[in-house]
Write a structure and sequence with these properties.
Oligomer: single chain
Number of strands: 0
Strand content: under 5%
Structural class: mainly alpha
Radius of gyration: 34 Å
């Protein structure tokens, strides 16, 4: 601006010099704030378009210290995770929706399994022949059997995803659920 003002004072055509000073000062004074505004807008747009982290489909339970009870609870939880993953592979249909509800109920059964393990810990049982531990072993076995049965039903649903074809199998699975943790 100093150069422009000095040139305007020495110039023979003051109108041309005034226009030149206005253009140069506009570029300098308007360019810096404009660049800052553009930088802020660019950062905001970049943060909005950043891909989000996917949430895990299966909610994780708080970890307990590893003991003889944790191993059996983890076996049941692993079966529930595999059932959930298997259900996701089934073609979309009313039968799949039913199978999804069964999978969610299986996840709720895990709370009962965790309760059995908590009972065993509270009793201070360290013997694998303890009735509470035997019940937990049975629950882990039943969860594995249920997982295998869901796998068979899911495989059948690939060929026949209609609800009528899968109804008998789904009703059987639903009846088995309450007995898994008993």
């Amino acid at each position: 601006m100093t150069i422009g003002a000095t040139a305007a004072a020495k110039s023979t055509d003051p109108a041309a010099m005034t226009i030149a000073v206005i253009i140069i000062s506009g570029l300098i004074l308007g360019g810096l704030p404009g660049s800052l505004v553009g930088l802020v807008i660019g950062l905001i747009r970049r943060s909005i378009n950043r891909p989000r982290q996917a949430m895990p489909f299966f909610p994780m339970a708080p970890q307990q210290p590893y003991d003889m009870w944790s191993e059996q609870v983890e076996r049941c939880a692993e079966s529930a995770r595999r059932v959930s993953a298997a259900v996701q592979t089934v073609p979309a249909s009313a039968a799949k929706d039913w199978l999804l509800r069964i999978s969610e109920q299986l996840t709720k059964e895990l709370d009962d399994v965790r309760g059995i393990a908590q009972l065993g810990r509270a009793l201070g049982a360290v013997d694998q022949q303890h009735p509470v531990y035997q019940r937990l072993l049975k629950a882990a076995h039943d969860f594995k059997q249920f997982e295998n049965e869901v796998g068979r039903v899911a495989l059948q649903m690939f060929d026949h995803p209609e609800l009528d074809d899968a109804r008998t199998h789904l009703e059987m699975l639903e009846k088995q659920l309450p007995q898994l943790s008993t």
